[in-house]
Amino acid sequence: MEPKVEFVIVRGTQSGVHAGELVSLDHATRSCVLRNSRRLWFWSGAASLSELAVHGAKNVRECKFAVPVERLEIVGDVAEVIYCQEAGAKMIRDCPEWRA
Protein backbone atom coordinates (compact mmCIF):
# COMPACT_ATOMS: atom_id res chain seq x y z
CA MET A 1 0.00 0.00 0.00
CA GLU A 2 1.24 3.48 -0.92
CA PRO A 3 1.85 5.83 2.02
CA LYS A 4 -0.57 8.75 2.28
CA VAL A 5 0.63 11.80 0.36
CA GLU A 6 0.45 14.93 2.50
CA PHE A 7 -0.67 18.10 0.71
CA VAL A 8 0.90 21.17 2.31
CA ILE A 9 1.29 24.91 2.01
CA VAL A 10 4.90 26.08 2.41
CA ARG A 11 5.74 29.69 3.18
CA GLY A 12 9.29 30.61 2.32
CA THR A 13 11.16 33.58 3.71
CA GLN A 14 12.12 34.69 0.20
CA SER A 15 10.56 32.24 -2.26
CA GLY A 16 6.94 33.05 -1.43
CA VAL A 17 4.06 30.65 -0.87
CA HIS A 18 3.81 27.24 -2.53
CA ALA A 19 1.33 24.37 -2.18
CA GLY A 20 1.82 20.76 -3.20
CA GLU A 21 2.52 17.18 -2.21
CA LEU A 22 5.28 16.96 0.39
CA VAL A 23 8.07 14.63 -0.77
CA SER A 24 10.63 15.49 1.90
CA LEU A 25 11.23 17.99 4.68
CA ASP A 26 14.59 18.62 6.35
CA HIS A 27 14.30 20.73 9.49
CA ALA A 28 18.08 21.04 9.88
CA THR A 29 18.53 22.75 6.50
CA ARG A 30 15.06 24.36 6.39
CA SER A 31 14.48 22.76 3.01
CA CYS A 32 11.75 20.71 1.38
CA VAL A 33 10.81 19.07 -1.89
CA LEU A 34 7.29 19.36 -3.26
CA ARG A 35 5.66 17.48 -6.13
CA ASN A 36 2.79 18.81 -8.26
CA SER A 37 3.18 22.20 -6.59
CA ARG A 38 1.72 25.59 -7.35
CA ARG A 39 2.91 29.05 -6.42
CA LEU A 40 0.12 30.93 -4.63
CA TRP A 41 0.41 34.58 -5.66
CA PHE A 42 -2.92 35.89 -4.37
CA TRP A 43 -6.05 34.51 -2.73
CA SER A 44 -9.40 36.03 -1.84
CA GLY A 45 -11.91 34.76 0.67
CA ALA A 46 -9.50 33.33 3.24
CA ALA A 47 -8.11 35.44 6.06
CA SER A 48 -4.82 33.54 6.36
CA LEU A 49 -2.79 30.64 5.00
CA SER A 50 -4.17 28.57 7.86
CA GLU A 51 -7.75 29.19 6.74
CA LEU A 52 -6.74 28.50 3.13
CA ALA A 53 -5.26 25.15 4.24
CA VAL A 54 -8.40 24.15 6.14
CA HIS A 55 -11.29 25.52 4.06
CA GLY A 56 -9.80 26.88 0.84
CA ALA A 57 -10.67 30.33 -0.50
CA LYS A 58 -14.26 31.43 -1.08
CA ASN A 59 -13.55 33.66 -4.10
CA VAL A 60 -11.91 31.12 -6.41
CA ARG A 61 -12.21 33.31 -9.52
CA GLU A 62 -10.13 36.04 -7.88
CA CYS A 63 -7.30 33.71 -6.80
CA LYS A 64 -3.98 33.77 -8.63
CA PHE A 65 -2.46 30.28 -8.40
CA ALA A 66 0.22 29.52 -10.98
CA VAL A 67 0.59 26.48 -13.22
CA PRO A 68 1.49 23.24 -11.37
CA VAL A 69 5.12 22.13 -11.62
CA GLU A 70 6.17 18.50 -11.35
CA ARG A 71 9.00 19.02 -8.83
CA LEU A 72 10.07 21.99 -6.74
CA GLU A 73 12.94 22.12 -4.25
CA ILE A 74 13.07 24.90 -1.68
CA VAL A 75 16.43 25.10 0.11
CA GLY A 76 17.26 27.09 3.22
CA ASP A 77 14.07 29.10 2.93
CA VAL A 78 11.24 27.19 4.65
CA ALA A 79 9.63 29.34 7.32
CA GLU A 80 6.35 27.46 7.76
CA VAL A 81 4.71 24.22 6.63
CA ILE A 82 0.93 23.92 7.02
CA TYR A 83 -0.68 20.52 6.43
CA CYS A 84 -3.90 20.94 4.45
CA GLN A 85 -7.24 19.36 5.15
CA GLU A 86 -9.08 17.83 2.19
CA ALA A 87 -11.27 20.89 1.47
CA GLY A 88 -8.28 23.22 1.33
CA ALA A 89 -6.20 20.84 -0.79
CA LYS A 90 -9.08 20.27 -3.23
CA MET A 91 -9.71 23.99 -3.69
CA ILE A 92 -6.01 24.67 -4.38
CA ARG A 93 -5.70 21.74 -6.81
CA ASP A 94 -8.93 22.64 -8.66
CA CYS A 95 -8.41 26.39 -8.87
CA PRO A 96 -8.01 27.50 -12.52
CA GLU A 97 -4.44 28.40 -13.53
CA TRP A 98 -3.60 32.07 -13.44
CA ARG A 99 -1.34 33.28 -16.22
CA ALA A 100 -0.06 36.74 -16.97
Describe the structure.
The model has no long low-confidence stretch (mean pLDDT 95). Strands 1, 2, 3, 4, 5 and 6 form a six-stranded antiparallel sheet that branches. By secondary structure, the protein is an alpha+beta fold. α1 (49-55) packs across α2. The protein is 16% helix and 42% strand. The protein has helices spanning 49-55, 86-94; strands spanning 7-12, 17-26, 31-42, 64-65, 69-74, 78-83. It is globular, with a radius of gyration of 13 Å. The N and C termini lie far apart (40 Å). It is built from two helices and six strands, in the order βββαβββα.
Tell me briefly what this model is.
Helices cover 16% and strands 42% of the residues.
Report mean pLDDT, rounded to a whole number: 95
Give the low-confidence spans.
none
Percent range of helical residues: 10-25%
Q: Please summarize the sheet with the most strands.
A: 6 strands, antiparallel
Strand content: 35-45%
Q: What string, H for helix and E for strand, traces the elements in order?
A: EEEHEEEH
SS field, number of helical segments: 2
Number of strands: 6
List the defining traits of the structure above.
single chain; 100 residues; alpha+beta; six-stranded antiparallel beta sheet; 2 helices; 42% strand
Question: Secondary structure elements and their pairing?
Answer:
Blueprint: E1 7-12, E2 17-26, E3 31-42, H1 49-55, E4 64-65, E5 69-74, E6 78-83, H2 86-94
Antiparallel strand pairs: 1-2, 1-6, 2-3, 3-4, 3-5
